[in-house]
Design brief:
The chain has about 100 residues and is mostly helical. The chain contains four helices and no strands. It folds into two domains: about 45 residues, no CATH class; about 50 residues. The longest helix has 23 residues.
Amino acid sequence: MRKRNCRIEIYFTRSELETLTKKVRKSGLSREGYCRRVLNDSEVRQAPSADIPVLIRELRQIELSLDQLLKSRGLPDQTGVSRTMEELHRVERMIAQAYARED
């Protein structure tokens, strides 16, 4: 069963539709999703470039590698590596927060 079952029809001028279409493309949302967010006073951000998810995935892989290295080798200078891991976590959170989408 549909969650949204109320339908509405809206007429736009060509200019208004072009403006809406440009904003929808930048957001990466569907037209309906974009309109719902605007109506609910949610912030609509520009969609991240395709490189951002790749960057986050790479950071997570580095974190995992460092963590495995620390656990397997029992390195004596763990503070430097731990600081590096904390910095990676911080950068990952910053990127994720900057490009998080509210559903």
